[in-house]
Amino acid sequence: MMRRDRLFLATTLTAIFTADLYFILLPKLRSMGRGSRQFCLCGPNNLTLPGQEGLATPPLSNWTSESPLVGAITDPTDGGSKLDRLFSHPLYNIQTPVLGPEERLLQAEQLMEYYRRKVSRWERHMKLYSEAAAISNITVTEHEVTFDPNASWLKFHLGINRYALYSRDDPTIPQLLKDMEIMTVVSADYTQDEKALKGSCDCTQVVKPSGHHLKLALKMRNFAKAMFKPMRQERDDETPEDFFYFIDFQRHNAEIAAFHLDRILDFRRVPPVAGRLVNITREVLLVTHNEDLRSVFFTSPANNTCFFAKCLYVCKTEYAVCGGPDLLEGSLSAYLPGLSIAPRISIPNPWIRSYTFNGREEWEVNPFYCDTIKQMYPYNSGNRLLNIIDMSIFDFLIGNMDRHHYEIFTKFGDEGFLLHLDNARGFGKHSQDELSILAPLSQCCMIKRSTLLRLQLLAQPGFRLSDVMRESLEGDPLQPILTEPHLLALDRRLQKILKVIQRCVRRLGENEVITKDFVKATARPQTATDRRKSR
């Protein structure tokens, strides 16, 4: 009887195992085999693009397979501008949904009235200041301020929408970059966050407040406003190995390069940034109305004009920056609309680092951390988590470990894009790739299809990321912005990103990893000629 029971049990277990093998394990193995053949991210012919040599992209959320991306592209090996070819590609000519009032950050009438009031206040302030300066025998260079409703910076503000800071073919952006290089500076002051530090600098803090970073707000003759970050480090210098990420220098060339990379990745979440040689005597010292700022200027033994940060723990001449004798290169970042007219909120990054010498955050020790984040608002629905992953890819490429917060415009709510602000701690080490920056991608194993397709495209020889970045940066007056090792590091890091995605796909399958988002081509992809006309 017992022998018969054992035989029955063995037969039952064999049947269950056979069914499990046939109906569950074998289909998974076949699926993985097909996926590994169809989804190679590293080879030269791995890109899946609709309308290109018979290949087709699966239909995405707001278009069907009957309306694929259209238009042939120039052979990427035929010479000429790789950057023009990149921006002529169908992936860079995706149609944006029709923008109604709710999709635009600001309305023209609202913005014009806001700035007319600001100009009136400025004129009253200048009149009172000039009278007080005359009584105190203070010399101030006065410039007439004119409000131009057609100024490029105003058009930039009006172009901000739910999807990006500017559209792909917006001719305003090249014009704004040129304007920031030459606009007359009429006033210089500390930024608002530095003003908030006055009298409250704490030397015991491990992470110093932003007053440590020597940044100024410059107002231009046409009432434009830009943030000036002076040169602190030579192009060839790497961040010392013993430096923690939270005490690293802020690099002006990193701000410039980050804007160009953001545009090449088609995120368009970094405000326009241009390099400029600033005469810190004529364009800062002689036009500032802030006595605290005046007080930190001095002349060095080499007869160069210098200034330093106002925070007490760095109010020393050895932390100063100096012109040569007056000219100092730096980055100018276009200001976003004021918070009173376009409110933004700052939100802690779920993958924030420990800003202590030996602390660690949960994501650094828990490989399943993303499972917790996926259950939390606002990461449990919509695009917020996918946008965090986009941001981590961007930060990994530039080597930025200092993304402790991100900002969004409150008008667009949870579905709005993330602003990629304050990128000056990027491009510090070309010889090191900090893979922990990719934790959101590697732990969550999610990515937008549009992001992935562009990354794949930029890995192709005809659109190589380092080549298009080099070409894009050549338009800046402070070129070369990045040294060759930094440019080549972009290609190396891109391959590492693709390998992380490939591992996720092999483990979970393509459908689990690659998230559909809208991809619909314009009627005709923009040509290189069209792009040159828009410039």
TrEMBL record:
Q: Which cofactor does it need?
A: Mn(2+)
Record has ATP-binding as a keyword? yes
| A GO biological-process term | enamel mineralization
Location comes to: Golgi apparatus
Q: Where is the FAM20 C-terminal domain?
A: 297-513
So which domain of life are we looking at?
Eukaryota
Please tell me where ATP binds in this chain: 229, 333-336, 407, 422
Which GO-annotated molecular functions does the record name?
ATP binding; metal ion binding; protein serine/threonine kinase activator activity
Which InterPro entries has this protein been placed in? FAM20, FAM20_C
* Binding-site residues for Mn(2+), renumbered to this chain: 422
What are the UniProt keywords, alphabetically?
Answer: ATP-binding, Disulfide bond, Glycoprotein, Golgi apparatus, Manganese, Metal-binding, Nucleotide-binding
Got a GO cellular component term for this one? Golgi apparatus
Q: Which residues form the active site?
A: 402
Q: PANTHER family under this entry?
A: DENTIN MATRIX PROTEIN 4 PROTEIN FAM20, PSEUDOKINASE FAM20A
Which family does the record assign? Belongs to the FAM20 family.
Tell me what this protein is called. FAM20 C-terminal domain-containing protein
What's the source species for this entry?
Answer: Echeneis naucrates
